[in-house]
Amino acid sequence: TAERVSVMYEENTKPARSARAVSLLIVVSAAALLAAFAGPSLKKETIRFYPTYARPPAEHGLLYELANGITREHGAESSGFRLLDHSYDGLLARLALIDSAVSSLDIQTYLWYPDHSGRLILERAIHAANRGVHVRMIVDDLLTIGQDQLIYELNQKPNIEVRLFNPWKDRSTLSRGGEMIAEMERLNTRMHDKLLIADGQAAVVGGRNLGDHYFGLSHDYNFHDLDLLGFGHIARQSNAMFDHFWNSEWVVSAVNLDVEPDPEFAEQAWDNLQAKNRAAEELTAFGAEARDWRDVAIGLAGELHVGESLLVFDETADNTIAQNVAEKMFGFMGLAQEELLITNAYIIPSQPAIDFLRSLTERGVHVRILTNSLASHDVPAVNSHYRDWRDDLIKAGVELYELRPDPAIRSLVEVPPVEGEFVGLHTKSVVVDREYVFIGSMNFDPRSFNINTEAGAFVRSPELAAELAEVMNRDMQPENAWQVFLDEDGDPYWVNSDETVYKQPARNTSQRIMDKIFKVVPKEQY
Hints:
alpha+beta; 35% helix; 21% strand
């Protein structure tokens, strides 16, 4: 998939752009070649609007009632939280917030796939707009190829506004390739954030994109992932983040897509969307129709963990990104006095990161890390740059675990009747001393630290931290992961409940070959 990159990076400076530069001859030649394949584009003169902001938090409706119950009892700075550990819960919570919204709905995402879950979320959002909810969407432009007419028509609907982050000016596949060569530094920066806010009273923050891999609905493979559902103050913090991007110079309204209105296309697309959602066997567990969630909310109210949150995000500025999350993350982990638990899907360490972890273990902090094995990876390229650091992590005193592609938690990842070929890890979470939690979008790698925009919630809640620690410990058990050890010669070997192996586990020979080939690609791109 388009999103693969991960762990602690050595410095907070931008990677050298000169390494990505291409000669003027190549650029000119590419431009001349691609001119023959001219396709759709953005309008030459960008249409921009005065800044607009989220509607005030709704003062009625189901979400208001849930949030108001928290703030009334615990104060305006508090929120009620629930982990979304199961794939089923991840999609169900989003549908519940969309269906329950009475005033506003804001969706910000890196990837939004036109698959089962992507279409279902879109249909429910359109239904919300049809009943008068103001819907705003920010989507990174990376994978919107061929969707211009749909995005344009969506933006034309009453109560819906769509904006694209860092869009390509030339919209066809071939033209995008040429523009990427010519404007590598700009177009290499992507919005990796994921956020859904309803009524300014409830929000989902975390790592899941909008697509089947993230909700247990893919027949190829599915991700074990994690989100945080919150009611109360966290939603107001999320509104501020969304508004920052909504009014950013990096974001462009869909009115700038150079296409003509096509009512017939819009009507047919709507009919097709509904028909596909109702015909999809994969969506049986969720139901095709919007519903009343009050019965679910009654049970949920007593399950929420109360805590105080700080939502952090990398901020956009003219022609640059202020990487705030990485610096705050190291400060957060440095708070650990007894225990540091890290689950992060894509890890590429560095010597300063190793030194940081060693400084923690030397003062008695128990550090455990779970990441992907080569066998559970969907992109071996990340493993190519991670594998040489295994021994350094272990020598620094870290307990290192790698996910199995056939974990016992598979039943929590896949939603029947779907059965994928393997399970991969996509979670980005941290627990400090069973008191503090981080859940967000940031991988621990050069790209997340220095190129993309990232976001996440820091929460102080011993109850939430205890629950997340249990989840992370469960995932590190031998039926779900290998623990990596070093033998007498300092070479790694892997132990799980079924076997001990002395060669890094892989699903097939092709993975091993790709693992070697991608070693030549600069790690700064992952």
